[in-house]
Amino acid sequence: MARLTCVFCCIYLAVFITSMNRVRKNILDNKDTRSFGVGSHRQRSRENKNPTSIPNNNKDSDVKAAMNLNDISTRKKSESTVITLPKVGPMKSIRRQLDDIIILQSKEISPLENCPPTAQVEIHISKEDEWILQTFDDSGQAKHLGGDEFYITYTDGLGDANNTHNSKNYEYENIPPTCIAIIQDKKDGTYSLNFSSTPMNPNPTNLLGRGRLTIHYEYTCGIGMMPQPTKQHWKNSGAVLETFHRNEVPLPPMTIFEKPIVDDLSHWPLVVFFGDSTMLQMIKDGKAMEEAGTEDNIFLKNNIFFHANIRTEFRMDRLDMLRRKFQAMHRKQMLKYEFDVAIVVGSAIWDVLIPENIQGSYFEDHLAACRDFVTDLKKRYFGRKIYWKSPSALQMHRVKCNEANYEFQECINSTRYLSNSRVRFLHEKQKELMKELNVTYLDLFDSYYLSAHYTAEGDGRHFRQELNEEILDWFYPKNQK
Question: I want to staple 208 with a disulfide (CB 3.0 to 4.6 A). Which of 33, 157, 204, 246 is the partner?
Fold first, then answer.
């Protein structure tokens, strides 16, 4: 009996110990489950005191969900501050199109040899800072080379949300932009965009704050900077000439255009101008000529005289001819007024565009001719005031040879080297030279650059009379006729 009692006690003790171990294990398991994903007791205490903390139950999945929401929010924010054009993807055919245009001669290297053409851009917009444009090739890879040329405009209040390409938007071409991007090539595939209002509307009012952004692709891979005769066998200039729009774009940070500080020409009894057709159009009253039915020049101001378009470049081998032309055109008038004469000279468009004018990349011969011509003028006409007028901008995206008022192939040939980058380079060099020669430089370049809308129809170099009148009035502050 005593032995049987002992056996039952042992069994009871074993069952009790096993039961206690299970209870203890469950307690530990439950404690571990509550602790998982939450951390230390101090962390749990902080969460209990913070009513906005994520609950412990299913916290891991909740954290992941919150992270996904944050990612979506960040992505949406990023998308709202980046404009991609063209939106549908890179222009896949751009290399093929350019390869078809570029006709290489023996030992010539294509500009696309070490530079993939730009096929898409991203514009990173900001409410306060300059906007940044990043270029991409046709495979969608970011580029790290400069050499692209764009013309970018913003027109407030314009555009509907469903239209992104230019093909059916000709009606919008008659609406002047609110502001234009002055673009700086950073040489690393990016470009800074600083927007300015325009000379014809320097203080735009009643702005809605949203509108249409338009980007004109002009050149890629440095093609716009190529000098004569590098493109003489090409089918055309090698310009891309694609235009894209994005609507509902916020108004960019905008600088208010201020007209340049220029001398008052109204007090001179005579101001003679010597240059090409762009010089003549700045001072000619075409409307009065049309009303009078005459081909004789009628000028916008009474003290102005311009004999004729000189129809030539400034080159060292033509320097004697240029001097003779000036003497024949102006000497008689100038002698009549003795020293009360101002002389305005300028040359650029022929120098940039004429295919036979072999100047190379740096215009060294042209600049030498400018130096000698001005130096000779100062000696021959000592005591007269001499000005040098800056080049006007060249707007390749405005060229439409199929709409030109002259023969199609002639248009192709005369615009083969038309690019804003090349004429801007010449403008900067002329400005440096005139400073060295102590000659007043009439810097109108950006005024024309910001006014592409006012070029003649289908023409990227001549500007309409309303803009020329506005600019000429800056030199006549009392708006004297």
Answer: 157
